[in-house]
Amino acid sequence: MLRAALIGCGNIGMGGHLPAYANVQEVKLVAVCDIAEERAVAAARQSGADVYTDYRRILERKDIHMVDLCVPTHLHARLAIDSMEAGKHVLCEKPMAHTMKAADAMRQAATRSNVKLMIGQVRRFDHRYASIKKQTEAGKVGRLVFIRRAERQFLPFPPDAWQWDPKRGGGVILDIGVHVTDLFQWFFESQPIEVYAIARSVRRAAIAAESFDHAFIICKFESGAVGFAETSWAYPEGFGGSFYAQLDVIGTEGKIQYTDKDSNPMVTFASGKGCEYPRYFRFMSTTEYAFEEEIHHFVRCVLDDSEPTGGRQFARVALEMALAAQLSAEQGRPVRLPLERE
Amino acid sequence: MEKIGIGIISYAHPHAPRYAASIMAHPDAQLVGVAGGGLNDDLARKDAERYGVPYYGDYRRLLSQDRLVGAYVGTEPTRHLEVVRAAAKEGRHVLCDKPIALSLEEADEIIQVARAAGIKIMVPFNPRFQLPLMRFKAALDRGEVGELVSIFAIKYGKLPSSIPGPADYGWLMDPEQAGGGGFLDIGIHAVDALRWLAGSEAIRVYAQIDQALHPNLEVDDIGTMTVEFENGVVGALSAGWVNPASFPAWLDVRFEILTTEASFLIDSPYHGYWHYGRERAQRVYWWRKDVDGLVDEFAKSILEDREPLISGEDARAALAIALAAYESSGSGKVVILH
Predict the structure, then answer these.
(1) Comparing C-alpha atoms, which of B200, B222, B197 is closest to residue B212?
(2) Which residues are B146's β-sheet partners?
(3) Which residue from B minimizes the CA distance to A196?
(4) What's the burial of A100, exposed, middle or buried (CB within 10 Å: 0-12/13-18/19+)?
(5) Beta strand ranges found along A204-321 (DSSP E)
(6) Which residue ranges form the domains of chain B, and what is each CATH number?
């Protein structure tokens, strides 16, 4: 049985990761940490784990095998590297980091310390997308030519939340962009060669933070395939989870169309409330079991000493594409990959 | 009031039969003749017979018919200029199917010829008369939904060679006659819609347009485009001959719109129902409000003697954006429009 620590008890830590540990047999959550003590205490109340406000105290504990990092993006590299140097395996939330330099330092630390490092590209564990991927792998739509993807929502966080801040979170291109860029490379199984993006600051919080909350991203791949995505936090309040995602996968022998609305099995009608599509999952974007499977997969990799799926090499490419999209949106031109040649 | 006489020139375009039916059904218009003289003359002759109107082997004879006031032109776009010249000579108004021409120079000439002769020229871009988009545009213009931010348009059809029936629409897949493939053929409707909804002129276009789905095709079959307008609105378009033969309808058309205060997800602009056959399911669109609306607008612009809602200049602007997309796809660069 592995013993894990959750560092960062904010939105994704509390909503996505913490509840998942109760359902993964091979791991026990023994410590939770947040710089805001009341959040760590709340997490401990739910999980029975020990409370920390300084992650370094967790790294001193010899009985802890892995840490799960759910902290703001700009802190990923520092916390991940410290953890790996302390001999801990690291499961880190996406995006991998906020710069390529930070991402590469993380990879090097993993190799140097001989520990597992996995980035939580959670879409790969979402049954909907895993099922569609299985169809494409089986050749059901022929050779993949094009994917259209939309991930849209109303980001419910206050203007001072780190997600809006281009330095801490990177805005929608980085935070949601890595989901779509990773999905493209996962499905196309090809190397990206060029990225183009147009982005806007729509909501007041994004304008104030000088970051993008609405973006269109086009990715070209070596195989000739093209991915086209809209990522947005600027949809109106009340934009429901039933409408979050769109996916069109187009191949030489057919196409697959998915929308969240299609798989929402119920509409309710009530006096005063009108018509509603109820949400089945805590997050609009993904299912609870996707986090469980993600954590379970990582735990199995640690136990079996195998390399995680969607591991750090994929997360690095996903990040590189998202950073290229950010650069493209700022400069108004297509950006060639790899970025270091820019 | 006497009904205005409208004729059909050429059944080369797959939409010609639909226009004939729509003109027949219009309360203020009357179908007064059908002209062939090119592709699919058999179909043209049969429709003339069915509707009890004269058939002309030479469209010039239709143009000189007394009762004719205007004509729908469904020739290949390479013949538009020639037909518009002939119509101008006779003072007949023209509803000219898209694209208006294959080059901006020729589009300019068509517009010039029409203006000099004082005839109206309208190009039928379907989305302008699709109810969900009309509703959205009206709400936007009334200021009810804030400012427009972006539109993601999807416009997928099937390969023209799979159009059922005996007609020959092969020119749509001939680069010389069509000027492009699936992206231009089906995408230009959405290109116009993006510009119309944005209410602004395009300044930057980026695109990737490929022949990737159908082997042995000489033209493109799928395209990806972004267009930025002067007022900051972003248009995104995925278009082409993308739907496999099994797709339960000919078209897959979607518009996904964000404004500063609302969003509109339009799954399909048509009114449909499902028909489940023994072997396969079909999505049947029982009301093409758009074609009726286009014919109505053409008739009204003549009756009220005003500029049609979709002018030659509008068609030229849509063509300019589409051509910029092809240029961007070729160069890999952003194309700046003025």
Answers:
(1) B222
(2) none
(3) B206
(4) middle
(5) 214-221, 226-232, 245-251, 254-259, 268-270, 274-276
(6) 4-122 (3.40.50.720), 127-290+319-336 (3.30.360.10)
B 182-241: CB under 8 A from A = 204, 206, 208, 210, 212-213, 222, 224, 226, 228, 232, 234, 236, 238
Residue B193: is its pLDDT beyond 80? yes
pLDDT digits (tens, 9 = 90+) for B104-150: 999 999 999 999 999 999 999 999 999 999 999 999 999 999 999 99
What confidence tens digit (pLDDT) does each residue in B81-91 have?
999 999 999 99
How far apart are the CA of B100 and the nearest CA of chain A, in angstroms?
Answer: 29
Candidate from B228, B252, B333 with C-beta closest to A198: B228
Question: In this structure, are residues A28 and A299 in contact, taking their beta carbons and an 8 Å threshold?
Answer: no
What pLDDT digit, counting tens, does each position of A116-156 carry? 999 999 999 999 999 999 999 999 999 999 999 999 999 99
Selected for mutation to probe chain A from B152, B209, B231 (highest A CB count within 10 Å) is B152
Is B333 near chain A, with CB under 8 Å? yes
pLDDT tens, position by position, A297-312: 999 999 999 999 766 7
User: What domains are defined for chain A?
Assistant: 2-123 (3.40.50.720), 127-288+318-341 (3.30.360.10)
